[in-house]
Amino acid sequence: MTYRIAPSILSADFARLGEEVKNVIAAGSDWIHFDVMDNHYVPNLTFGPMICSALKPHAKTAAGVAVPIDVHLMISPVDALAASFAEAGADYISFHPDASGHVHRSIQAIKSKGVKAGLVFNPAEPLDVLDWVIEDIDLILIMSVNPGFGGQSFIDSALRKIEDVRKRITASGKDIRLEVDGGIKTDNIRRVADAGADTFVAGSAIFGKPDYKGVIDAMRVALQG
Ligand SMILES: O=C(CO)[C@@H](O)[C@H](O)COP(=O)(O)O
């Protein structure tokens, strides 16, 4: 299993975002997770495509290798802003099925821009829509907190859902990443991986500590354990 660690810049210092992105990449992050909130689908407000576009040149390693920008849309409606994020340089764009009137159409619209498409499931939301679109998507994001805020505690029922999604991915035979977001720390990341996740979003666990590399390294050690 190739694991990916995706720090959420929701918990970064917004006054120094470019520097924060550079620093967390230097610390070893695989992806940059970009949480978009609209004060409508969720009760919080963050950043839009212009910030994504401004950060894009910073999302690379010291050797100049591009680091994927993983956009999580917590917005409704989906399609117009998804297109803007594709133009802004997003590599993955994920949305909540209940935020889109037409899930299949939104997936196709994202993919038509050459961007990978993902679906996001809230803690109490069923997975049924996957019966119809799993073959069309590149990523499934399981929320292990209710979306809208960083720094919340991991909801344990997410583990059963991750196991269910892993079975569905295996049955599909497709190369689909299984990402988990919310309350991921060095002391629970192994359990989440054991349930079947391969991609881990972590905000406060990384940006809440002065030593980003220390946290990311500890997460990798836990994943190997
Ligand atoms: O999408 C969200 C919240 O809506 C997440 O990306 C959180 O930002 C994760 O933060 P931590 O729970 O890791 O602090």
Short description:
This protein has 225 residues and is of the alpha/beta class.
Overview of the molecule:
This protein is 35% helix and 18% strand. The mean pLDDT is 98. The protein has an eight-stranded parallel sheet with strand order 1-8-7-6-5-4-3-2. Strand 7, helix 7 and strand 8 form a beta-alpha-beta unit. The chain is built from nine helices and eight strands. It has a single domain, classed as Aldolase class I (TIM Barrel, Alpha-Beta Barrel). With 225 residues, the protein is an alpha/beta fold. Helix 2 (49-55) packs parallel to helix 3. Bound molecules: 5-O-phosphono-D-xylulose. The active site is at residues 35, 181. A divalent metal cation binds at residues 33, 35, 72, 181.
Question: Tags for this entry?
Answer:
225 residues; alpha/beta; TIM Barrel; 9 helices; 8 strands; globular; binds 5-O-phosphono-D-xylulose; Ribul_P_3_epim; Ribul_P_3_epim-like
CATH architecture group name: Alpha-Beta Barrel
Number of strands: 8
Instruction: Write down the domain tally.
Output: 1
- Associated small molecules: 5-O-phosphono-D-xylulose
> Biggest sheet, strands in spatial order?
1-8-7-6-5-4-3-2
CATH superfamily: Aldolase class I
Q: What's the CATH class, please?
A: Alpha Beta
In percent, how much strand structure appears in the residues? 15-25%
Q: What coarse outline follows from CA principal-axis ratios?
A: globular
Helical amount among residues, as a percent range? 25-40%
Helix and strand sequence: EHEHEHEHEHEHEHEHH
Structural class: alpha/beta
Largest sheet: 8 strands, parallel
> Runs with pLDDT <50, length 5+?
none
CATH T-level topology = TIM Barrel
Report mean pLDDT, rounded to a whole number.
98
GO molecular function: D-ribulose-phosphate 3-epimerase activity
Binding site for substrate: 8, 72, 148-151, 181-183, 203-204
Function: Catalyzes the reversible epimerization of D-ribulose 5-phosphate to D-xylulose 5-phosphate.
InterPro entries: Aldolase_TIM, Ribul_P_3_epim, Ribul_P_3_epim-like, RibuloseP-bd_barrel
